[in-house]
Design a protein that fits this description.
about 160 residues, mainly alpha, about 60% helix, 8 helices
Length: about 160
């Protein structure tokens, strides 16, 4: 589904002339469909079983001193830390050791998400929760769209002005 349609019976005009819809929720001014094409059953299993959290905590605890020497701040980490092929192999082996059987199709479908989540969790374990959000939101479609609108005054005003 790439759009949401409301029946006219839910339509309401606010005192300043904006049209809103009832029905128990808030409909945003801009609809962005969720991209589910990058999520696989394998990825979901890794998340639900806590494999990402356990692996990244072990990874950071074993290498904290070296990581902090190489990446003394979040900026250097964000710009330079690679999720290497070796790290991905170590992660999938770790998962297999926790009875999460490797799925090549699932891994390939979700590889970008796996890399992003690993990097964000390593950052959280090295620095703080703000580092996690800084990295995880760097690839968020809603955040990107919001920033595009904020950076374009004409576009931004379009959502503030009554039509």
């Amino acid at each position: 589904m790439d759009s949401i349609h409301f029946p006219d019976s839910l339509k309401y005009a606010t005192p300043n002339g904006r049209t809103v819809f009832g029905g128990g929720g808030i409909m945003p001014d801009i609809f962005l469909p969720v991209d589910t094409t990058k999520y696989s059953e394998y990825y979901g299993l890794l998340v639900r079983r806590g494999i990402f959290n356990a692996y990244t905590l072990d990874y950071v605890n074993k290498q904290r001193k070296e990581l902090m020497a190489k990446y003394p701040n979040v900026e250097s980490f964000e710009n330079s830390f690679p999720v290497s092929a070796a790290m991905l192999k170590e992660f999938t082996d770790y998962a297999a050791g926790k009875e999460i059987h490797y799925s090549e199709d699932g891994f390939n479908k979700s590889k970008g998400e796996i890399e992003l989540y690993l990097k964000a969790l390593v950052a959280r374990n090295l620095y703080d929760v703000n580092a996690y959000y800084r990295i995880i939101l760097s690839d968020d479609d809603e955040v990107k769209k919001a920033l595009d609108i904020f950076e374009n005054p004409r576009e931004f005003r379009k959502y503030l002005v009554v039509k």
